[in-house]
Amino acid sequence: MRIATQQPPGASRPLLLINGMAARLQMWRPFVAALPARHLVMFDLPGIGGGLSLRVPELMPAIAQWLTDLLDVMEIDEADVLGYSWGGVLAQQFARDAPDRLHRLVLTSTNHGWGGVPVPLLPLWNPLPNSTGDDLGKLVAAAFGADPNSSNAFAAILTAFNPQKSSFSGQFRQLYSTMGWTSLPWLHTLKAPTLVVAGDDDPFVPISTSRTISDTIPDARLELIPGGGHLIPTNQPSRLARSVDNFLNESDC
Predict the structure, then answer these.
(1) 84-97: b (≥16 Cβ within 10 Å) or e
(2) Secondary-structure breakdown of the chain: helix, strand, coil percentages, each rounded to the nearest 5
(3) pLDDT reported for residue 145
């Protein structure tokens, strides 16, 4: 698997960045550029970016255990975690299963599983971009693991079937991991300070879903980005970085 880190002098606790569906770690480039002073850890999930898949398709708890094993290998005792889209689902599971390894949690453009995305496909057929550039080509490109700043959806689909770049099997396994998954029965048990960031013009995640997550996690905070779409880390990296940095710098007292 591929791992990339940024560790400026004096930086302390790492911020673990969990990719969206089928995305490779390159998706974080604009966000990383907006956070030059923070210790960051990025990685490709199993089966993505040419890396090996897990031996059999696994459900979300097993992938959360894989994430814990990754921290062990990297000798990271505790981390802040930012999960984007599908990565936010994994981040929620990790927060439940390994609370002693988590310091602060950021959930971006994500949902709580069943019932969280009532109309996920209809906006895809609107070819007009919103104010943040979530046009049809970029959404399709991102969905197939390409650079979300690219509008070449056809090339993204071809890339999805290229095992040297992004395995279609890996994407299927990510979809499989969410089967029957929901965090609603246990979201109220999460203890880590949590920031929920969402765009108010996200075609995949309704505002009501983001509010449900923030209202259910004790003392969680919701920040809505006006005009923000689904591709916040790439379309509004500076805005997201500012919110995340301020949140992580807050005192725990």
Answers:
(1) bbbbbbbbbbbbbb
(2) 40, 15, 45
(3) 54
Residue 72: pLDDT band with limits 50, 70, 90 = very high
Q: What is the mean pLDDT of residues 69-75?
A: 96
Catalytic residues: 85
Separation of alpha carbons 47 and 177, rounded Å:
13
Contacts of 186 (CB under 8 A, 6+ apart): 96
Q: Which residues, in sequence order, are CB contacts of 218 under 8 Å at separation 6+?
A: 188, 190, 191
CA angle 221, 225, 229 (to 5 degrees): 120
Give the residue among 64, 73, 76 at the shortest CA–CA distance from 1. 73
Which letter does DSSP use for residue 150 in this model?
-
**Structure tokens that stand for 137 in this block:** 């080509």
Sequence-distant (≥ 6) Cβ neighbours of residue 72 within 8 angstroms: none
Longest dimension (CA), the chain: 50
Under DSSP, is residue 47 helix (H, G, I), strand (E, B) or coil? Answer: coil
Domains and CATH numbers, the chain: 3-125+164-248 (3.40.50.1820)
What is the C-alpha separation between 20 and 145, in angstroms, rounded? 8
CA distance 44 to 85: 15
pTM (2 decimals)?
Answer: 0.84
